[in-house]
Design goal:
The complex is a heterodimer.
Chain A (H helix, E strand, L loop, with lengths): L1 E6 L3 H13 L7 E5 L9 E5 L4 H27 L6 H14 L13 H23 L3 E2 L5 E5 L10 H7 L5 E5 L4 E5 L5 E5 L15 H14 L8 H7 L15
Parallel strand pairs in A: 1-2, 1-3, 5-6
Antiparallel strand pairs in A: 4-5, 6-7, 7-8
Chain B lengths: L8 H10 L32 E2 L5 E2 L1 E5 L26 H13 L5 E5 L6 H17 L6 E5 L6 H8 L4 E3 L7 H7 L5 H24 L11 E7 L6 H15 L3 E6 L19 H16 L4 H4 L13 H8 L6 E2 L5 H4 L7 H10 L7 H6 L4 H4 L3 E2 L12 H11 L5 H4 L3 H8 L1 H4 L19
Classes of the chains: A alpha/beta, B alpha/beta.
């Protein structure tokens, strides 16, 4: 009978489940992981609830880093941030496959295996979305000088932006608000960024912009219009590169 | 003639970005630089596009001219001295302020600063130098800066600017010296190629210095680029591609950009104005070929020849090459070397690398290729997996061509939107040469100008 471990949708949860599944030494078709809340009941399956366990998670993290290498870890990390409901099972499948091949660090090259390929796709989607937001996050300067930005991403990829923006604006106070997942990334000048969950944002405060903000928005929009060449106009091509979905909070596409 | 003294910043930005938009280079790639913790900005090796304008081109840098005052009278240029257009100039502080404030809001990746030639090349270059010196030191900006070197400016100035900028470019403007003489009477090949050579040599010296002193200042770390206007003069694609190849080989350029000629002025030396719009398909084919030169190990003479000097309107240069060399195909994907895989239509350099890695782990089949990003509808005529082709196909030029055409060429939407008549009229270079009624004389070989 197949055994399916059910865990929470978090790094700790998924790694805890992998820990237990790994210990059983069962094969790929005999064990799986499902996320709590998105379990598809199957016949002839035994479901085991897994509690989050920091120790187990750290053990799995070390195992991955030591035996599968940095690149595989990078892929697993991005897969965990995805909104894909089968991601945990995909990671487990990929790890079980890595156990079989002679050089486990090359597992990500093994693209002809369905689970590895699926993971490659999922992690690529997440890292692509993170890359998109590196481009189209738009800050506005609030009254108190804080640079504020809001986004609505599909995946939980806010943490992928931290290093980029804190390196870019080390001396600024800035925050990025993920409306989909109700998370905020906060950076205080000269310090490390942090992630804040479940905190209510004062909607009034974030619309209260500094005096010069409108001027720079206007200048930017003016530039955005004048830099386009009329003879080459192509809104379809623009949409291809910058889909409408991403434009919601992008300054140059907003009405003043 | 300075009637534009009291202009608002918005008006200036409007005029000077409008005047700069015909320059195509807007990439922010080539440098990887972390912030040192004392200022603002960093650089990402791959470059970052921040937006896309209404013409679908990427906006990565604040692309502006320092001034559109110009003493030159280049016939294709909107800012030529004989044109009656509103003129404006920034001050260094205005440019710095705009750059920093746009950058803080994550609108842009950095600054692209070009300029009309104001008073003299040296005077203009000095203004540019002052601006970016201020931006780097006073405003502590560590993002990307792309600067145009002004042809004819002194060596010393260009070198000083090079230590502050990430990329420098000098526009070749037109593919041949003859075209340049005709359309840009104040510029000549020598004043363009001299600074290009200077930047190249300074970069080489700088590399040596950096080997000895790791913290030595860096000279244009993202390299230099150039651009040519396509379709303002009667050169064929073979000539243009040869020029590009010579530039890559002899001047170590990072990129050559091609800019489809856009009618902004009426001049008897320019081609006759038509309704067809800029030659976008031709520009697209040149970019495709350019990639083949830089990433796929092709040479210009493999893609075109004296006899057949222009790109096919219907299929891309790589497919065209493959059809001419059917004796090399089909190729066994599991055995072929990387260089040959690169030459298969439908296999890009990324999927070729994936194939080489993945086949170490197991034998690949068509299904695997598809998942790796190979475009099978194009590739299937040229490859086998485990000794078998995907379908039963003939290896015959006409047959494959017909099938490839029914699949459709992957051209950008802006080109696809044109109807058939426009394509055939404007991109068939043989036809277009009739527009240059006056220029039927002998064409000089191009290499001699690029020695």
């Amino acid at each position: 009978m197949k055994r399916v471990y059910v865990c929470t949708d978090s790094l700790t949860g998924i790694f805890s489940a992998i820990y237990d599944a790994w210990k059983t030494k069962l094969g790929e078709n005999e064990v799986g992981i499902a996320l709590r809340g998105s379990v598809e009941q199957e016949l002839f399956c035994e479901y085991v609830e897994i509690r989050d366990n920091e120790k187990k998670a750290i053990a799995v993290e070390n195992l991955i880093k030591r035996h599968l290498g940095e690149y595989a870890y990078w892929n697993i990390y991005h897969t965990i941030l995805s909104h894909d409901s089968k991601k945990a099972d995909v990671i487990l499948g990929m790890m079980l496959e890595a156990r079989k091949i002679p050089d486990s660090t090359r597992i990500m090259e093994h693209l002809s295996h369905p689970k590895v390929r699926r993971m490659f796709e999922i992690s690529r989607k997440v890292s692509n979305e993170a890359h998109y937001y590196r481009e189209i996050v738009r800050f506005r300067e609030l009254q108190n000088g804080i640079l504020f930005s809001e986004i609505e991403p599909r995946n939980r990829m806010l943490s992928c932006l931290g290093e980029h923006f804190s390196d870019r604006f080390p001396l600024e106070n800035w925050m990025i608000y993920d409306r989909t997942h109700q998370m905020v990334m906060v950076h205080e000048a000269g310090k490390q960024w942090i992630l804040v969950h479940g905190e209510q944002i004062d909607e009034k405060l974030i619309t209260n912009c500094s005096v010069k903000e409108t001027m720079y928005v206007k200048l930017w929009k003016g530039f955005f219009d004048s830099v386009a060449i009329k003879e080459r106009e192509s809104y379809e091509r623009q949409r291809q590169h910058l889909p409408l979905h991403y434009r919601k909070y992008v300054t140059e596409f907003q009405e003043i | 003639m300075r009637i534009t003294q009291n202009m608002s910043l918005a008006e200036k930005l409007n005029i000077l970005s409008d005047a700069a938009k015909y320059d195509v280079a807007c990439t922010s790639s080539g440098t990887d630089r972390k912030n040192d913790g004392t200022g603002i900005g960093n650089c990402a090796k791959a470059g970052i596009c921040h937006s896309f304008s209404a013409d679908g081109r990427c906006i990565s840098l604040l692309k502006i001219l320092f001034t559109n005052e110009c003493i030159y009278d280049c016939k294709y240029c909107i800012n030529r001295s004989s044109n009656d257009v509103p003129r404006a100039s920034f001050t260094p502080d205005e440019v710095c302020d705009l750059t920093i404030e746009f950058y803080r809001r994550n609108y842009i990746e950095g600054l692209f600063l070009s300029s009309g030639v104001w008073k003299s090349p040296d005077f203009t270059m000095e203004m540019i130098y002052q601006t970016i010196y201020k931006l780097r030191t006073e405003y502590r900006f560590q993002g990307y800066i792309h600067v145009k070197a002004i042809p004819g400016a002194s060596q010393e100035l260009i070198q000083r600017v090079g230590f502050l900028a990430d990329r420098m470019s000098i526009n070749l403007e037109l593919p041949t010296a003859e075209g340049l003489r005709k359309l840009a009477p104040h510029k000549n090949r020598k004043t363009i190629l001299t600074p290009m050579r200077l930047v190249q040599n300074s970069m080489k010296e700088n590399k040596q210095e950096l080997m000895v002193y790791r913290n030595a200042p860096r000279f244009v770390p993202a390299g230099q680029s150039t651009q040519m206007i396509i379709g303002a003069t009667p050169e064929n694609d073979f000539q243009i591609l040869n020029v590009a190849e010579a530039l890559y080989k002899n001047f170590d350029l990072k990129r050559v950009f091609y800019s489809a000629f856009i009618h902004v002025n009426d001049d008897s030396n320019l081609p006759v104005r038509t309704d067809a719009g800029p030659p976008l398909l031709r520009e697209h084919r040149l970019y495709q070929a350019d990639w083949l030169l830089r990433y796929y190990g092709f040479e210009a003479k493999e893609l075109l020849s004296e006899k057949n000097p222009n790109f096919n309107v219907l299929i891309d240069p790589k497919c065209n090459w493959a059809l001419e060399h059917l004796e090399l195909f089909p190729l066994e994907v599991n055995l072929a070397d990387y260089q040959m895989l690169l030459r298969v239509p439908g296999i890009g350099y990324k999927s070729a690398a994936r194939i080489v890695k993945a086949r170490r782990m197991g034998v690949l089949d068509f299904d695997d290729l598809k998942k790796m990003g190979v475009v099978l509808k194009r590739a299937l005529y040229f490859i086998t997996c485990k000794g078998r082709m995907m379908y039963h196909t003939k290896i015959e030029q006409d047959y494959i061509l017909r099938n490839l055409l029914s699949v459709g060429d992957k051209v950008p939407i802006s080109v696809r939107e044109m109807n058939y008549k426009q394509i055939s009229l404007f991109d068939d270079v043989n036809f277009r040469q009739e527009q240059f009624a006056t220029q039927q004389g002998k064409k000089a070989p191009i290499e001699q100008y690029l020695g």
